[in-house]
Automatic annotation (TrEMBL):
SUPFAM superfamilies named among the record's database cross-references: Metallo-hydrolase/oxidoreductase
Biological classification of the source: Archaea, Methanobacteriati, Methanobacteriota, Stenosarchaea group, Halobacteria
Entry superkingdom: Archaea
Keywords: Hydrolase, Metal-binding, Zinc
Entry annotated with the keyword Ribosomal protein: no
Swiss-Prot/TrEMBL cofactor(s): Zn(2+)
SMART domains, alphabetized: Lactamase_B (SM00849)
Organism the protein comes from: Halomicrobium zhouii
Gene Ontology molecular-function annotations: hydrolase activity; metal ion binding
Protein name in UniProt: Glyoxylase, beta-lactamase superfamily II
Length: 192
């Protein structure tokens, strides 16, 4: 099961996805709300935190999560504060009941990852693409529009459009209706 713990929070935060199953995980930890309480309302413990990237709105709550849970923190940038394991391009991590492959997808930020499980039919897209076919900002430090477009193209090449059932993004609603088409729309929009 995947639940967005940041849903309807009126603060500056990313989405925070709690994935339950064999290996209970958080995908991103958000910012400016009590994520520890939100986790404890649903589960007793966490096994892993996986970061899509290290912008503050995605990692601001990491210290409180580390204070509360003895948890592995996985990210592309192994030198980032709190990270205990580097997850490189093509590496895998178990989230819930499924293995996810890491896709290094810079353009929004150099350490950006998308996480894809073909078996689950799920893509965690971070800030690469969003519902409605929009895409991540490229005007911030480390942002680059041509690189972002290449990253979206890579996701389109790797993800099985027929099998993708859920697209969970770093901000806004998740997409469960035609998620592959949402990625295609973001690719088109990013080119203009």
């Amino acid at each position: 099961m995947i639940a967005n713990l940041a849903l309807d929070r009126d603060v500056f935060t990313s989405n925070v996805f709690l994935v339950t199953g064999e290996r209970t995980a958080l995908v991103d930890v958000g910012n400016e709300f009590d994520v520890v309480e939100a986790v404890r309302d649903r589960v007793d413990d966490l096994d892993v935190v996986v970061l899509t990237h290290t912008h503050y709105d995605h990692v601001g709550n990491l210290e409180s999560v580390l204070d509360a849970f003895d948890v592995e923190v996985v990210a592309f940038d192994g030198d980032a504060d709190g990270v205990t394991r580097t997850l490189g391009d093509g590496g895998t991590v178990q989230i819930g009941d499924h293995e996810y492959v890491a896709l290094h997808t810079p353009g929004h930020k150099n350490d950006h990852l998308c996480l894809y499980s073909e078996a689950a039919g799920v893509l965690f897209a971070g800030d690469l693409v969003f519902a409605g076919g929009s895409f991540g900002r490229t005007d911030l430090d480390e942002g680059d529009r041509p690189t972002l477009i290449e990253s979206i193209e890579r996701v389109l090449d790797v993800v099985d459009g027929a099998e993708l059932r859920e697209l969970h993004t770093g901000h806004g609603p998740s997409v469960e209706s035609n998620p592959y088409q949402t990625i295609q729309m973001a690719h088109q929009a990013a080119q203009f």
